[in-house]
Design a protein that fits this description.
By secondary structure, the chain is of the alpha+beta class. The chain is built from 2 helices and 4 strands, in the order ββαββα. A hairpin with a 2-residue loop joins strand 3 and strand 4.
């Protein structure tokens, strides 16, 4: 699965061994510190929204998955948070 790009992709997702859909996107940064800073800011947005993504990150990247577990798929909560995350990303340094 290639998540690089400017748009969120709808993907099959298997949290808790249940198949459901999620929005997914990979963000690229110049180094680990920028990735970590971005992830922490996404966490702050998520807390304010009361909607928490799954995140995997490392040196120069962060992968984000958004799904509404209680609905077993993508809802307006996911689309709204994805837009907020994109706005945040535009404000951060990237490669």
């Amino acid at each position: 699965m290639n998540l690089d790009g400017d748009t969120w992709q709808e993907v099959d997702y298997f949290p808790d061994q249940r198949q459901q859909k999620a929005l997914a996107k990979k963000f690229v940064f110049k180094d680990f510190k920028d990735s970590l800073d971005f992830v922490n800011k996404v966490g702050a947005l998520a807390e304010l929204a009361g909607h928490h993504p799954d995140i995997n990150f490392g040196w120069g990247y962060a992968q984000v998955w958004l799904t509404t577990h209680s609905s077993h798929g993508i809802t307006e909560k996911d689309h709204k948070l994805s837009r907020q995350i994109d706005e945040l990303f535009l404000k951060t340094s990237k490669i």
